[in-house]
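=== RUN LOG ===
request id: a7f3
mode: sequence -> structure
chains: 1
length: 121
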Amino acid sequence: MSDDKGDSGGDSGALDGRVLDELFAVIELRKGGDPEASYTAKLLAGGVETVAAKVTEEAAEAVVAGVSEDAARLASESADLLYHLLVLWAARGLSPEAVWAALAARRGTSGLAEKAARGNS
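=== RESULT ===
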C-alpha cells in the first residue's frame, strides 16, 4: 500500500465526502509507523505542534490559490489542506464523526446567528 497522501489503499473510487473518512482511516493506520517510510507517520511523530504548523502553511497556500490561481490549483491546495487537517485530528484524537456532528448541529442555522452564539465577531 502506498503512503501517497491521496492513496486510501482502497478501491472504492468514492468521489464524495466518504473519501475523507477513508483517508482518515489510512492516517490512523500510520500512527506509530516508521517515519522514514511514511510521511504521515513522520508528521505524527513530530507532535501536534508540527502538524499544526503544516496546517497553517497549507491553509495559506489554499488562500493564495483561491485568490490568484486557477481552479485546478485551488483544488490541489484544498486537498493538501484537508489531508493535513485530518492528520491534525488524528494527532489530537478527534474523530471525523465529531466534526461531522458539529457541522450537522449548525445545519439550518444562520451563519451570523451561529457565530454570534459562539461569541465571535
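=== NOTES ===
The chain has six helices and no strands.
Confidence is low (pLDDT under 50) at residues 6-10.
=== END ===
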